[in-house]
Amino acid sequence: MSHESVWYSRPRTYGKGSREWYVSASAPTPLV
Fold this sequence. Notes:
Radius of gyration: 9 Å
Distance between the termini: 24 Å
Order of helices and strands: HH
Mean pLDDT: 57
Shape: globular
Low-confidence stretches: none
Number of domains: 1
Strand content: under 5%
Largest sheet: none
Structural class: mainly alpha
C-alpha cells in the first residue's frame, strides 16, 4: 500500500502534515 493511496484515503484535514498523518496511521496516537 503506497503512501499516496493512504494519503488520498485519509481526509484532507491533515493537509501538508504528512508527518502527522503518517504517525497517526502508524500509531494509535499522533506523535508531534
